[in-house]
Design a protein that fits this description.
This protein has 261 residues and is of the alpha/beta class. It has a domain of 128 residues: 3-Layer(aba) Sandwich (Rossmann fold), CATH 3.40.50.300. The strands form 2 sheets. The chain has a 6-stranded mixed beta sheet with strand order 6-7-8-3-9-10, sandwiched between helices. Strands 2-1-4-5 form a 4-stranded antiparallel beta sheet, with helices on one face. A hairpin with a 2-residue loop joins strand 4 and strand 5. Helix 3 crosses helix 4. The longest helix has 18 residues. The chain starts with a strand and ends in a 22-residue tail after the last helix. Bound molecules: adenosine-5'-diphosphate (ADP) and magnesium ion. The site of adenosine-5'-diphosphate has 12 residues, from helix 1.
């Protein structure tokens, strides 16, 4: 169980990025964070990952307070962040500390899980964007994390690759059911993947609203119920625009109805 309690984050320059953020995430739950650009999504994810500390409040997994990167937490970013001089297998293996017979077996199993066995010898520059991101997912999975944090993991990919990887991520999730917290700009992505969608409002960042999606899986992107949710969430995001009186004014393009930036 992940407990986020009253997290407040003020940066050294005085800017308040998060205020009174509390959230509990159950084991195996998939939660999406959506909201305007700059509303504090990445800051919150970094705090959960132990890469940043809240000014006030706390984050705990199973009652253990997170103060530094934790072996039970895996991170996936928008760019794959692979080491260019290591092949796919060694990049994945790198996620494990010790090289043993067992770690080799885990690496091979993880390669197979993301469908990269045949490309294990390739260097990152020889991979397509989707394959590189699958390698990054494998590197995060190899330690068998309880919690996977994903910060806009598919937003640099083309639409087709993105939907393929979303489906693939769900297949992977089915195996070990890690808790997943996903930051996304893509409402459809949030709706296809999540049990809950949390709408953040910026300036300072706080939770505006949480929606529990009572939609069975697998979900079809064309389903009428999904489309209704999409409209509802877009309405909520419109309402989540920070006050114009605030210090950091943001907006997203209204001309692009299914993305939020
Ligand atoms: N180290 C920092 N110092 C000051 N301000 C920061 C720092 N990191 C992020 N910010 C600001 O905090 C706000 C939230 O950033 P971020 O969490 O990256 O937003 P998001 O991921 O939702 O787009 C932004 O306005 C950003 O400019
Ligand atoms: Mg961000």
């Amino acid at each position: 169980m992940l407990h986020i309690e009253n997290v407040y984050r003020q940066f050294e320059n005085g800017f308040v990025a998060l205020e009174s953020v509390s959230l509990q995430v159950k084991p195996g739950e998939i939660v999406s964070l959506v909201g305007t650009s700059g509303c504090g999504k990445s800051t919150l994810l970094r705090i959960i990952a132990g890469l940043d500390r809240p000014t006030l409040g706390s984050v705990a997994i199973n009652h253990e307070t997170i103060t530094a990167p934790h072996p039970k937490i895996g991170l996936i970013f928008q760019e794959p962040r692979l080491m260019p001089w290591l092949n796919v297998r060694d990049n994945i293996q790198f996620g494990l500390n010790a090289v043993s017979l067992n770690s080799r077996a885990i690496t091979e199993a993880t390669l197979a899980k993301v469908g990269l066995t045949e490309f294990a010898h390739c260097l990152p520059r020889q991979l397509s964007g989707g394959m590189a991101q699958r390698a990054a997912i494998a590197r995060a999975l190899v330690t068998q994390p309880e919690i996977l944090l994903l910060d806009e993991p598919f937003s640099a990919l083309d639409a087709l690759t993105r939907t393929t990887l979303q489906d693939h991520l769900l297949d992977i999730w089915e195996d070990d059911r890690p808790t997943m917290i996903l930051v996304t700009h893509d409402i459809e992505e949030a709706l296809v993947l999540s049990d809950r969608v949390i709408v953040l409002r910026g300036n300072p960042g706080r939770i505006q609203r949480a929606f529990t999606l009572d939609l069975p899986r697998p979900r079809r992107r064309t389903d009428a119920s999904l489309q209704r949710w999409k409209e509802r969430l877009l309405g909520e995001l419109d309402a989540s625009q920070p006050d114009q009186s605030g210090t950091n004014q943001r907006s997203w393009p209204r001309s692009v109805p299914d993305t939020v930036s």
